[in-house]
Amino acid sequence: MSHNPSDPGTLPGSDHPDEAGTIAMRDGAPGGLDAEQVLQVLREEARNYRIQQSALRGVQLVFLTLIALLVVACVSIWLKKGRLAFDDFSYFFVFISLLGGMAAVTPRHKEAATRMAQLQDTRAVGLLTETLETSDRDLRHVVQQALPGLLRRLQASDAHLLDAHQRKILNRLLRRARQEKNTELALAVLKAYEQVGDASALPEVERLASVPDPKDARFRQVVEAARECLPYLKVRVEQERASQTLLRASNPAHTDRAASDALLRPAQEAGATLPEELLRATDAQVPHHAVPSSDTTTLIQRAGNNTP
Question: Which of 150, 215, 218, 265 could make an S-S bridge to 183, C-beta 3.0–4.6 Å?
Fold first, then answer.
Protein backbone atom coordinates (compact mmCIF):
# COMPACT_ATOMS: atom_id res chain seq x y z
CA MET A 1 0.00 0.00 0.00
CA SER A 2 1.50 3.35 -0.99
CA HIS A 3 1.67 6.23 1.44
CA ASN A 4 -1.02 8.85 1.04
CA PRO A 5 0.55 12.31 1.49
CA SER A 6 -2.83 13.77 2.36
CA ASP A 7 -3.11 11.46 5.37
CA PRO A 8 -0.77 12.76 8.08
CA GLY A 9 -1.74 9.96 10.41
CA THR A 10 -0.04 7.12 8.52
CA LEU A 11 3.68 6.65 8.13
CA PRO A 12 5.09 4.95 5.01
CA GLY A 13 5.32 1.19 5.28
CA SER A 14 2.06 0.85 7.17
CA ASP A 15 -0.75 -1.11 5.54
CA HIS A 16 -3.28 -1.14 8.36
CA PRO A 17 -4.58 1.61 10.65
CA ASP A 18 -3.66 -0.31 13.78
CA GLU A 19 -0.02 -1.08 12.91
CA ALA A 20 2.94 0.41 14.82
CA GLY A 21 3.56 2.66 11.84
CA THR A 22 0.18 4.29 12.17
CA ILE A 23 0.12 7.52 14.11
CA ALA A 24 -3.10 8.42 15.87
CA MET A 25 -4.49 11.90 15.32
CA ARG A 26 -4.12 13.88 18.56
CA ASP A 27 -4.11 17.52 19.58
CA GLY A 28 -1.08 19.35 20.90
CA ALA A 29 1.54 18.15 18.38
CA PRO A 30 2.50 19.39 14.90
CA GLY A 31 0.17 17.89 12.34
CA GLY A 32 -2.04 16.50 15.11
CA LEU A 33 0.39 13.60 15.81
CA ASP A 34 0.87 11.59 18.98
CA ALA A 35 4.48 12.06 20.09
CA GLU A 36 4.61 8.74 21.95
CA GLN A 37 3.64 6.73 18.86
CA VAL A 38 5.95 8.67 16.56
CA LEU A 39 8.79 8.02 19.02
CA GLN A 40 8.01 4.30 19.01
CA VAL A 41 8.16 4.20 15.21
CA LEU A 42 11.47 6.07 15.25
CA ARG A 43 12.91 3.58 17.76
CA GLU A 44 11.93 0.63 15.58
CA GLU A 45 13.33 2.22 12.43
CA ALA A 46 16.57 3.22 14.17
CA ARG A 47 17.01 -0.34 15.45
CA ASN A 48 16.46 -1.75 11.96
CA TYR A 49 18.87 0.79 10.49
CA ARG A 50 21.59 -0.25 12.94
CA ILE A 51 21.13 -3.89 11.97
CA GLN A 52 21.24 -2.90 8.32
CA GLN A 53 24.44 -0.90 8.79
CA SER A 54 26.04 -3.78 10.67
CA ALA A 55 25.27 -6.08 7.75
CA LEU A 56 26.63 -3.48 5.35
CA ARG A 57 29.94 -3.39 7.19
CA GLY A 58 30.00 -7.16 7.01
CA VAL A 59 29.89 -7.14 3.20
CA GLN A 60 32.63 -4.54 2.82
CA LEU A 61 35.21 -7.30 2.62
CA VAL A 62 33.13 -8.95 -0.10
CA PHE A 63 32.98 -5.62 -1.93
CA LEU A 64 36.75 -5.19 -1.82
CA THR A 65 37.15 -8.74 -3.09
CA LEU A 66 34.81 -7.96 -5.99
CA ILE A 67 36.86 -4.88 -6.84
CA ALA A 68 39.95 -7.05 -7.11
CA LEU A 69 38.04 -9.55 -9.26
CA LEU A 70 36.78 -6.71 -11.44
CA VAL A 71 40.31 -5.58 -12.16
CA VAL A 72 41.29 -9.13 -13.09
CA ALA A 73 38.18 -9.44 -15.26
CA CYS A 74 38.95 -6.17 -17.08
CA VAL A 75 42.43 -7.36 -17.94
CA SER A 76 41.14 -10.76 -19.06
CA ILE A 77 38.36 -9.33 -21.25
CA TRP A 78 40.68 -6.77 -22.77
CA LEU A 79 43.16 -9.44 -23.69
CA LYS A 80 40.46 -11.64 -25.26
CA LYS A 81 38.20 -9.07 -26.96
CA GLY A 82 40.42 -6.04 -27.23
CA ARG A 83 37.60 -3.92 -25.76
CA LEU A 84 35.40 -3.49 -22.68
CA ALA A 85 31.60 -3.35 -22.76
CA PHE A 86 29.06 -2.30 -20.12
CA ASP A 87 27.26 -5.65 -20.39
CA ASP A 88 30.40 -7.40 -19.20
CA PHE A 89 30.06 -5.73 -15.79
CA SER A 90 26.30 -5.37 -15.36
CA TYR A 91 26.33 -7.75 -12.38
CA PHE A 92 28.83 -5.51 -10.62
CA PHE A 93 26.67 -2.40 -10.99
CA VAL A 94 23.68 -4.31 -9.67
CA PHE A 95 25.69 -5.17 -6.56
CA ILE A 96 26.68 -1.50 -6.14
CA SER A 97 23.03 -0.44 -6.32
CA LEU A 98 22.11 -2.99 -3.65
CA LEU A 99 24.79 -1.60 -1.34
CA GLY A 100 23.45 1.88 -1.91
CA GLY A 101 19.97 0.71 -0.95
CA MET A 102 21.29 -0.79 2.28
CA ALA A 103 22.95 2.50 3.23
CA ALA A 104 19.78 4.58 2.79
CA VAL A 105 17.15 5.29 5.42
CA THR A 106 13.59 4.21 4.69
CA PRO A 107 10.90 6.83 3.97
CA ARG A 108 9.18 5.72 7.18
CA HIS A 109 12.37 6.35 9.16
CA LYS A 110 12.84 9.74 7.54
CA GLU A 111 9.29 10.89 8.24
CA ALA A 112 9.36 9.73 11.87
CA ALA A 113 12.69 11.49 12.48
CA THR A 114 11.44 14.67 10.82
CA ARG A 115 8.29 14.71 12.95
CA MET A 116 10.20 14.11 16.19
CA ALA A 117 12.56 16.95 15.25
CA GLN A 118 9.51 19.18 14.89
CA LEU A 119 8.11 18.01 18.22
CA GLN A 120 11.35 18.97 20.03
CA ASP A 121 10.94 16.00 22.38
CA THR A 122 14.15 15.41 24.34
CA ARG A 123 13.42 11.66 24.46
CA ALA A 124 14.37 11.49 20.79
CA VAL A 125 17.71 13.30 21.15
CA GLY A 126 19.78 10.10 20.85
CA LEU A 127 17.78 8.68 17.95
CA LEU A 128 18.02 11.97 16.06
CA THR A 129 21.76 12.09 16.73
CA GLU A 130 22.15 8.82 14.80
CA THR A 131 20.62 10.38 11.69
CA LEU A 132 23.57 12.80 11.47
CA GLU A 133 25.57 9.99 9.85
CA THR A 134 22.97 8.87 7.33
CA SER A 135 23.34 9.47 3.62
CA ASP A 136 20.10 11.50 3.43
CA ARG A 137 21.16 15.13 3.11
CA ASP A 138 17.68 16.57 3.64
CA LEU A 139 17.18 14.58 6.84
CA ARG A 140 20.60 15.60 8.15
CA HIS A 141 19.74 19.25 7.53
CA VAL A 142 16.46 18.98 9.45
CA VAL A 143 18.14 17.25 12.38
CA GLN A 144 21.06 19.70 12.48
CA GLN A 145 18.55 22.50 12.91
CA ALA A 146 16.59 20.67 15.63
CA LEU A 147 19.36 19.12 17.74
CA PRO A 148 20.84 22.31 19.28
CA GLY A 149 17.55 23.11 21.02
CA LEU A 150 17.20 19.55 22.30
CA LEU A 151 20.79 19.28 23.53
CA ARG A 152 20.64 22.56 25.44
CA ARG A 153 17.56 21.35 27.34
CA LEU A 154 19.19 18.19 28.67
CA GLN A 155 19.56 17.81 32.44
CA ALA A 156 21.80 15.48 34.45
CA SER A 157 18.89 13.07 34.80
CA ASP A 158 18.73 12.74 30.99
CA ALA A 159 22.13 11.03 30.63
CA HIS A 160 20.42 7.73 29.74
CA LEU A 161 19.00 9.29 26.58
CA LEU A 162 22.42 9.02 24.89
CA ASP A 163 24.00 5.59 24.52
CA ALA A 164 27.66 4.85 23.76
CA HIS A 165 27.13 4.78 19.97
CA GLN A 166 25.32 8.12 19.95
CA ARG A 167 27.97 9.70 22.16
CA LYS A 168 30.64 8.60 19.67
CA ILE A 169 28.78 10.47 16.95
CA LEU A 170 28.71 13.65 19.05
CA ASN A 171 32.39 13.24 19.92
CA ARG A 172 33.26 12.89 16.23
CA LEU A 173 31.32 16.11 15.61
CA LEU A 174 33.51 17.90 18.17
CA ARG A 175 36.60 16.42 16.54
CA ARG A 176 35.57 18.10 13.28
CA ALA A 177 34.54 21.35 14.98
CA ARG A 178 37.19 23.39 13.19
CA GLN A 179 35.87 22.31 9.78
CA GLU A 180 32.16 22.25 10.69
CA LYS A 181 30.08 25.15 9.44
CA ASN A 182 27.32 24.46 11.96
CA THR A 183 28.98 26.05 14.98
CA GLU A 184 25.67 26.16 16.84
CA LEU A 185 25.50 22.36 16.96
CA ALA A 186 29.02 22.02 18.41
CA LEU A 187 28.22 24.69 21.02
CA ALA A 188 25.05 22.81 21.97
CA VAL A 189 26.96 19.53 22.34
CA LEU A 190 29.41 21.19 24.74
CA LYS A 191 26.55 22.72 26.71
CA ALA A 192 24.87 19.31 26.95
CA TYR A 193 28.11 17.69 28.12
CA GLU A 194 28.10 19.97 31.16
CA GLN A 195 25.04 17.97 32.26
CA VAL A 196 25.29 14.54 30.60
CA GLY A 197 28.94 14.20 29.56
CA ASP A 198 31.01 11.14 30.45
CA ALA A 199 34.60 9.92 30.26
CA SER A 200 34.34 9.28 26.51
CA ALA A 201 33.88 13.01 25.88
CA LEU A 202 36.80 14.13 28.02
CA PRO A 203 39.61 13.74 25.41
CA GLU A 204 37.77 15.80 22.77
CA VAL A 205 36.74 18.55 25.18
CA GLU A 206 40.27 18.76 26.60
CA ARG A 207 41.72 18.95 23.10
CA LEU A 208 39.40 21.82 22.15
CA ALA A 209 39.99 23.65 25.43
CA SER A 210 43.76 23.53 24.89
CA VAL A 211 43.70 25.24 21.47
CA PRO A 212 45.66 28.52 21.90
CA ASP A 213 43.97 31.68 20.63
CA PRO A 214 42.18 30.46 17.45
CA LYS A 215 41.96 33.03 14.66
CA ASP A 216 38.59 31.98 13.26
CA ALA A 217 35.80 33.73 15.17
CA ARG A 218 33.36 30.83 14.95
CA PHE A 219 35.90 28.27 16.09
CA ARG A 220 36.96 30.61 18.91
CA GLN A 221 33.41 30.34 20.27
CA VAL A 222 33.71 26.56 20.30
CA VAL A 223 37.07 26.70 22.11
CA GLU A 224 35.69 29.07 24.75
CA ALA A 225 32.65 26.83 25.21
CA ALA A 226 34.96 23.83 25.65
CA ARG A 227 36.90 25.70 28.35
CA GLU A 228 33.65 26.47 30.17
CA CYS A 229 32.47 22.88 29.80
CA LEU A 230 35.68 21.19 30.96
CA PRO A 231 35.38 21.81 34.75
CA TYR A 232 31.80 20.53 34.80
CA LEU A 233 32.74 17.51 32.71
CA LYS A 234 35.64 16.61 34.99
CA VAL A 235 33.35 16.72 38.01
CA ARG A 236 30.89 14.41 36.26
CA VAL A 237 33.64 11.98 35.29
CA GLU A 238 34.95 11.88 38.88
CA GLN A 239 31.44 11.29 40.19
CA GLU A 240 30.97 8.51 37.67
CA ARG A 241 34.22 6.83 38.70
CA ALA A 242 33.42 7.16 42.40
CA SER A 243 30.01 5.63 41.81
CA GLN A 244 31.52 2.69 39.94
CA THR A 245 34.06 2.17 42.74
CA LEU A 246 31.28 2.06 45.33
CA LEU A 247 29.32 -0.41 43.22
CA ARG A 248 32.32 -2.71 42.90
CA ALA A 249 33.01 -2.51 46.63
CA SER A 250 29.42 -3.45 47.48
CA ASN A 251 29.32 -6.34 45.03
CA PRO A 252 30.54 -9.68 46.51
CA ALA A 253 31.45 -10.85 43.04
CA HIS A 254 34.30 -8.32 43.01
CA THR A 255 35.86 -9.47 46.31
CA ASP A 256 39.60 -9.89 46.14
CA ARG A 257 40.09 -13.53 45.19
CA ALA A 258 43.57 -13.64 46.68
CA ALA A 259 42.30 -12.46 50.08
CA SER A 260 39.46 -14.96 49.92
CA ASP A 261 41.87 -17.80 49.12
CA ALA A 262 44.12 -16.74 51.98
CA LEU A 263 41.22 -16.98 54.42
CA LEU A 264 40.26 -20.43 53.20
CA ARG A 265 43.78 -21.86 52.94
CA PRO A 266 44.65 -24.31 55.80
CA ALA A 267 47.60 -23.50 58.02
CA GLN A 268 50.86 -25.13 56.92
CA GLU A 269 53.07 -26.93 59.47
CA ALA A 270 56.72 -26.07 59.62
CA GLY A 271 57.68 -29.65 58.93
CA ALA A 272 55.98 -33.01 58.41
CA THR A 273 56.40 -35.53 61.22
CA LEU A 274 55.67 -39.20 60.72
CA PRO A 275 53.10 -40.65 63.11
CA GLU A 276 55.49 -43.54 63.91
CA GLU A 277 58.05 -41.06 65.18
CA LEU A 278 55.53 -39.49 67.54
CA LEU A 279 54.46 -42.86 68.96
CA ARG A 280 57.74 -44.79 69.04
CA ALA A 281 59.85 -44.90 72.23
CA THR A 282 63.16 -46.57 72.99
CA ASP A 283 63.38 -49.57 75.21
CA ALA A 284 65.61 -47.71 77.60
CA GLN A 285 63.03 -44.97 78.14
CA VAL A 286 60.00 -47.23 78.61
CA PRO A 287 59.65 -49.65 81.52
CA HIS A 288 59.16 -53.27 80.60
CA HIS A 289 55.66 -53.37 82.03
CA ALA A 290 54.69 -50.25 79.96
CA VAL A 291 55.64 -51.75 76.59
CA PRO A 292 52.37 -52.04 74.64
CA SER A 293 51.21 -55.37 73.43
CA SER A 294 51.20 -56.25 69.74
CA ASP A 295 47.45 -55.56 69.53
CA THR A 296 47.85 -52.13 71.05
CA THR A 297 50.73 -51.33 68.69
CA THR A 298 48.62 -52.31 65.71
CA LEU A 299 45.78 -49.97 66.81
CA ILE A 300 48.20 -47.11 67.35
CA GLN A 301 49.75 -47.59 63.89
CA ARG A 302 46.33 -47.66 62.28
CA ALA A 303 45.39 -44.45 64.06
CA GLY A 304 48.62 -42.88 62.85
CA ASN A 305 47.93 -43.90 59.26
CA ASN A 306 44.50 -42.25 59.42
CA THR A 307 45.94 -38.99 60.71
CA PRO A 308 45.72 -36.29 57.98
Answer: 218
